[in-house]
Structures are given as structure tokens and as C-alpha cells.
Design a protein that fits this description.
Blueprint: E1 2-13, E2 16-27, E3 31-35, H1 42-49, E4 55-62, E5 65-66, H2 72-79, E6 80-83, H3 95-101, H4 110-116, H5 118-122, H6 133-146, E7 151-155, H7 163-178, E8 182-186, H8 190-196, E9 199-204, E10 207-212, H9 219-226
Parallel strand pairs: 3-8, 3-9, 6-7, 7-8
Antiparallel strand pairs: 1-2, 1-4, 4-5, 9-10
Helix pairs in contact: 3-6
Bound molecules: adenosine-5'-triphosphate.
Amino acid sequence: MSLLQVSAIEARYGPVQALFGVDLDVSEGEVVALMGRNGMGKTTTIRAILGLTPVSSGTVRFAGREIGTMASHRIARLGIGLVPEGRRCFPNLTVEENLLAAARKGRWSRTAVEELFPRLRERRDQYAHSLSGGEQQMLAIGRALMTNPTLLVLDEATEGLAPVIRHDIWNVIRKLKDEGQSILIVDKTLSELLPAADRCFVLEKGVTVWSGLPGELTPELQDRYLGV
Ligand code: ATP
């Protein structure tokens, strides 16, 4: 049974319709890549799953419950942890305070997160606003893990980060996958994303136009849908 099942969802920003029929699903322990060119609806799909943008049509089921009309804080509490685009943390809290503010019982404690990201341990008492972009992304992932989510959702996991930091973050994503963490991920680095993913969904103009195994996403399909 799917952990997350998104069926034919539509969503709009006021008069502007952004999603016209998105289907995707994530099974337990799976890493699923959500792909598509800029502006095709990836972030809106994630926002709709999290209840941050209203779903005007279609259904979203998570862990056997319909969540399409639920408030975002309730959805988060059911076990979806979001690492949003732009790596938002509380700028005026320290690294430690940011982590503890998100804490819920489970495998991921502050110590466990610091083991995963030793840089966060080194910067434990530093204010989040004084961290580098890469460190802020580590903190954003750490915060999402501290909620002990059943499903971790990463929007633009490594965008705009230095190569060495990207490398660290991909290593962490692979570690989480090996542990059986269910993950829905958006990222533009296909050379890292495709080997990490179990399945892929491609959006075009707010519609799911292709889904399959990473190995089935041929150079022709990549060219057609992703423009690479
Ligand atoms: P990117 O890779 O650039 O982040 P994306 O695939 O995540 O793109 P979305 O950000 O979901 O795409 O955007 C989907 C569509 O919705 C686009 O046409 C975009 O212009 C529109 N859109 C996004 N946010 C808003 C908003 N706040 N108000 C109006 N339209 C929006």
C-alpha cells in the first residue's frame, strides 16, 4: 500500500491555476524523485501535499487518511517533514534551539542529527542567520528529521550550494535511503538524483506526464521533459 497517494490534484493561486492533474505515489521506504522544468508545478505539488496551498480537486492520502483538506500543522503532525525551498530556519535562534524547537520522539534526537551533520555540532551555539547557505540547508534537513517524519519531503535539496556541501548532502540522502526512510525529493542534479531514486514522476504544465524507473528515463525523455 502506498504511504502517500496523490490522485488527479488541481491547485491554484487565486485566478492562476498551477496544477491540472498531478498523480504520484510514494511507498514505504521508497525514494521518489519529482521532476520537471522550472515552473512546471513541483513546488506547488509539495505545497498542496503539505496543506500549504489548497487542493481544489483530486485527493491526497497519507498513511491511509485523506489529508487533502487538512490544515498544514495537522498534516505535519501525521508525519510529513518538509525541507522547503530556500532552507527556512529561525534566524534568531541558535542551531541547537532550531533543532530542539522541532523535536518529537523517535529515532532522530539532537545527538543523532549532529552525528549525521558534524558541522551542526561544531556550530551548535551559533545563530542560524550566521550560518553559510550549506549549513542552513543541513539545519533545515536536521529540523525536518527532528520531527521524526514517516515521509521526508525535500524541495530543491541542493540548489545553489557549493559542490563540497552538495556532496555531503547527497551522502546524507543516501544514508537515509539505506535506513529505509521514505523520501520525496526535488532536485536538478540528475547525476545524483537518478541513482538515489527508486522511481520518478515528471510534471509538465501542472500535469504528471511520465512516471517510471530512473533507468527508463532515457536521454530522449530527459531532453523532452527536462531540457537537458
Ligand atoms: P521551479 O523549479 O522554478 O521552482 P516548480 O516546478 O516548482 O518550478 P511552481 O513553483 O510550482 O513550479 O510553479 C507552478 C506554476 O505556478 C508556475 O506557472 C508559477 O508561475 C505559478 N506560481 C507559483 N507560485 C505562485 C504564486 N505565489 N502566485 C501565482 N502563481 C504562482
